[in-house]
């Protein structure tokens, strides 16, 4: 153990027997009166992988006049399975047609596929999946669960825009951009 009151030898040793080992990231300290020495900075050829936090997952059931929408987002996996089962029960209890908004899903495993299969098999009408990302579409195609569902990217004629607020107040329509002619 190092005694804080005992001076450390100036030769770089810890005072214990054996050679001194310098940490690879250790830097030499330049005295204040010495001219600074620039050392080249080398970048590694290895790509940097950032370990970003995962998108938080969520499930919400929204009951509208004529349908029930289940909004799923983030990583739809086993951690979310209890919430998915609860959402299935809540949506079934309304007796309305069911649609699943999947546009913010960043990952889906077999728990998410099982959720969609369960909805499709229990619903009296075909379940619509709105704005499914390519990863979800791929899973639905590979598992053939997509054959039991309607994949929808655009609202049907006469149906309100999915992004439009549902507050009953008049809104100003968005201008449509002019066609670009090459």
UniProtKB/TrEMBL annotation:
Signal peptide residue numbers: none
Residues of the STAS domain: 70-149
InterPro entries in the cross-refs: MlaB-like_STAS, STAS_dom, STAS_dom_sf
Lineage of the organism: Bacteria, Bacillati, Actinomycetota, Actinomycetes, Micrococcales
Pro residues compositional bias, start-end: 172-182
Origin superkingdom: Bacteria
Pfam families: STAS_2
Renumbered residue ranges of the record's region Disordered: 1-35, 154-182
Biased composition (Acidic residues): 154-163
Protein's UniProt name: STAS domain-containing protein
């Amino acid at each position: 153990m190092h005694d804080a009151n005992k001076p450390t030898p100036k030769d770089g040793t810890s005072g214990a027997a054996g050679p001194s080992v310098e940490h690879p990231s250790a830097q030499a300290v330049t005295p204040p009166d010495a001219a600074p020495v620039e050392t080249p900075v080398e970048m590694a050829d290895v790509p940097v992988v950032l370990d970003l936090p995962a998108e938080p997952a969520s499930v919400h059931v929204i009951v509208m006049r004529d349908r029930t929408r289940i909004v799923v987002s983030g990583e739809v996996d086993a951690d979310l399975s209890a919430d998915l089962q609860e959402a299935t029960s809540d949506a079934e209890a309304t007796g309305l047609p069911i649609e699943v908004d999947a546009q913010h899903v960043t990952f889906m495993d077999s728990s998410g596929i099982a959720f969609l299969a369960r909805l499709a098999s229990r619903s009296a009408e075909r379940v619509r999946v709105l704005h499914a990302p390519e990863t979800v579409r791929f899973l639905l195609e590979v598992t053939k669960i997509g054959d039991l569902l309607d994949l929808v990217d655009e609202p049907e004629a006469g149906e309100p825009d999915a992004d439009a607020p549902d507050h009953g107040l008049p809104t100003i329509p968005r201008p449509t951009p002019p066609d670009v002619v090459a």
